[in-house]
Amino acid sequence: MAIAYAREGADVAFTYLPEEEQDAAHTAAVAAMMANTTSELEKNLPVKTSARALGSLR
Description:
There is one protein chain. By secondary structure, this protein is of the alpha+beta class. It has one domain (2-45). The protein is 33% helix and 17% strand. A two-stranded parallel sheet has the order 1-2. Strand 1, helix 2 and strand 2 (38-42) form a beta-alpha-beta unit. The protein is globular and about 30 Å long.
């Protein structure tokens, strides 16, 4: 999903699990090629965690 939003010109932020680090690095690299701001966060978030719980990403 992050790459799809980046293609549309959006800044993207996403979380990933430690075992997904290689995939996360690839996703961030592709989004960065589209001149977007990306934030990757290694976190295991519960389903009900809101974006506000992450704080400011900028």
